[in-house]
Design goal:
By secondary structure, chain A is α/β, with parallel strands linked by helices. Chain A has nine helices and 13 strands. Classes of the chains: A alpha/beta, B alpha/beta. The structure holds iron/sulfur cluster (SF4) (2 copies).
Chain lengths: 311, 294
């Protein structure tokens, strides 16, 4: 039987799924990237292989996420695509009528607006950390409360502290101030969750037509406090899919299915030596940093050349 | 005598006119090469933090030319009439360059509100250029005719692209950013690789598109900004819009924001401040273009 592998590889986590012709998930895994995409993909593929029943054969491989190009070459992927498209395609497979995807991850946040199953607009936060998960975790650390408990604690607050949400620096000093004037931890945590939502809506969501059905994804979607304030402020139901973190991988697997052929892939990459070398080219004043990819010592690809002539 | 022309800022508005003008007068010119990392890095080193990336790059180009010519050509442009002002940098570059470098500058003013036309300005150069006023007049009128012809052709080409069957992207930005080899060109090349048709905001007949500007704001008085957004007259014919700016640009941040609030089309706002790499920008462009394909 035919099946398709999708890998979503970011700087923090590596996610992989194998789906069948009907988009059912037959294997899936989620591991930390730990700064080494090549090794983490090798690990991920081993895990997926063990879950995969024997009768299934891989007919397409897709990669997405920040290291998609490198991993795409490593696995001979037939599709390499950005994570926004992949997320939208994946989410649509399970929620065909979704109109808005909110996503807050560890490092960045995004919004995707869809109508009739088509992406019509999107935006990405590229400048500010105040609306992302890393801000929440650093504040959790400061308050010495495990981040996993944040959501539950926030739900107990009746009077969330108002926290300047515009930027991390302000938010942080405001937090300290609120603690000093005697706000309870619940109220501060609730205020923090609310400020994440406000910041997100003012930055990434600015000017976007947010309509239901709305789905909330990314690491922060596990936080019930943030979810609650999204619902409250948008005055709409906001869903969280338990497979939300896999949507990028699922989406890219679906795209690879669309472009697949009779060609079969094996997944024996364990012993393949895969290295990248960076070198500066000095043939002209641009001094490009050229990244070369070697598979078993054979030069397979390179990028970084501005003129396109240096391989 | 050799006149140095930095391939930056003004160059992208006047290069054709200048070429025909100086060729006609038989005066040697040297144009700095396309911006490369070294030129930009030198420009950054010589400039202050508050300057926009485009201006920093300009300074790098002057630095490249400083020992290779007798004069650097720098116009001082204040306005093209009432409510047709330019960015203050267009007026200030002369002084900025004068402050940083010890070089001779060939300068002339354009300030139509005070009746200082381009021709008036060029005529005043007759002594330095060692040409008679009538020679300059002839050269100028020749340059204007030739430039006009070429411009017409580029405008027609640009208009024709509006009926292309590919994904059509209107690229809005200042000419010196759009066509700079480190700023706009990598973006244009990438869009072409994604099989998009690119329509350029600065290649329309401003006289015929001008009216649309008041739809976005009635108070704008920056000529080039108005010209750029006047391309939105054809908004219904394109699939999406990409705004390209360099950081920090007061004009773009205001004007583009006004436009964002009123358009009903997918758009992407790209602001370049550090040209470290295009990888992150490629992701944003690819996902933007995917809007029209998935
Ligand atoms: S790769 Fe090309 S553009 Fe880059 S430094 Fe080498 S020759 Fe120059
Ligand atoms: S308009 Fe903007 S980009 Fe152009 S010179 Fe002025 S500040 Fe720089």
């Amino acid at each position: 039987m035919k099946c398709y592998l999708g890998i979503d590889i970011g700087s923090i986590s590596t996610k992989g799924v194998i789906i069948d012709e009907e988009n059912n998930i037959i294997a899936s895994s989620y591991i930390w990237t730990e700064g080494n995409p090549v090794e983490s993909v090798k690990k991920l593929v081993e895990i997926l292989k063990q879950q995969l029943p024997e009768e299934y054969k891989i007919h397409g491989i897709g990669t997405t996420g920040s290291a998609r190009k490198l991993i795409g070459i490593m696995l001979n992927a037939n599709v390499v695509k950005n994570e926004i498209t992949a997320h939208a395609v994946g989410t649509l497979a399970f929620h065909p009528d979704v109109k808005t995807i909110l996503e807050i991850g560890g490092q960045d946040s995004k919004i995707i607006i869809l109508r009739n199953g088509i992406i019509v607009d999107y935006a990405m936060n590229t400048l500010c950390a105040a609306g992302t998960g890393s801000f929440l975790s650093s504040q959790a650390k400061r308050l010495s409360i495990p981040i996993e408990d944040f959501g539950e604690i926030a739900l107990t607050s009746k009077n969330p502290a108002k926290i300047a949400a515009r930027c991390t620096v302000f938010a942080e000093s405001d937090l300290i101030h609120k603690a000093q004037v005697g706000y309870s931890k619940q109220d501060i945590i609730a205020g923090l969750c609310k400020s994440i939502v406000l910041n997100y809506l003012n930055n990434v969501g600015k000017g976007k037509k947010i309509r239901g059905p709305i789905i909330f994804q990314g690491g922060v979607s596990k936080n019930k406090g943030v979810l609650k304030y999204f619902r409250e402020i948008l005055n709409e139901d906001v869903m969280v899919d338990e497979n939300g973190h896999l949507m990028g991988a699922i989406g890219i697997a679906i795209l690879s299915k669309k472009e697949s052929s009779e060609k079969q892939y094996d997944l024996n990459i364990e012993d393949i030596k895969f290295i990248t070398k960076a070198n500066e080219c000095n043939k002209c004043p641009n001094n490009c940093e050229i990244l070369r990819i070697y598979k078993n010592d054979e030069h397979v690809d390179s990028w970084g050349s501005m003129c396109g002539k240096v391989k | 005598m050799t006149i140095g022309i930095p391939r930056s800022m003004f160059y992208y508005y006047f290069n054709k006119k200048w070429k025909y003008f100086f060729d006609y007068l038989n005066i040697n010119t040297i144009i700095s090469p396309k911006t490369n990392r070294e030129i930009l890095d030198n420009g950054i080193k010589l400039s202050t933090d508050e300057m926009c990336l485009s201006l920093k790059s300009y300074i790098g180009h002057v630095d490249y030319l400083k020992d290779k010519c007798d004069y650097i050509l720098i116009p001082r442009i204040d306005n093209y009439g009432r409510k047709e002002q330019t960015c203050t940098n267009f007026l200030a570059i002369y002084d900025i360059i004068n402050n940083i470098f010890d070089i001779k500058i060939l300068d002339y003013n354009i300030d139509l509100e005070n009746n200082e036309t381009e021709l008036e300005g060029l005529l005043k150069l007759s002594k330095i250029l060692k040409k008679t006023k009538s020679e300059i007049k002839k050269a100028y009128s020749y340059a204007c005719t030739m430039e006009g012809k070429e411009k017409k052709k580029t405008i027609i080409d640009n208009m024709n692209k509006l009926s292309s069957t590919k994904t059509k992207i209107l690229l809005i930005g200042h000419s010196y950013n759009l066509y700079d080899s480190l700023i706009g060109v990598p973006i244009i090349k990438y869009l072409e690789k994604l099989n998009c048709e690119i329509i350029y905001s600065d290649l329309f007949d401003y006289k015929s598109t001008k009216d649309i500007v008041s739809k976005y704001s009635k108070n704008l008085y920056w000529k080039y900004s108005k010209q750029n957004i006047s391309s939105l007259k054809y908004i219904d014919k394109v699939d999406g819009i990409i705004f390209l700016s360099t950081f920090p640009c007061g004009l773009d941040s205001l004007v583009n924001e006004l436009v964002f609030r009123k358009i009903n089309k997918p758009y992407l706002n790209l602001i370049l401040d550090d040209l470290g790499g295009i990888a992150g920008i490629e992701t944003r462009i690819e996902s933007f273009v995917d809007i029209f394909e998935y």
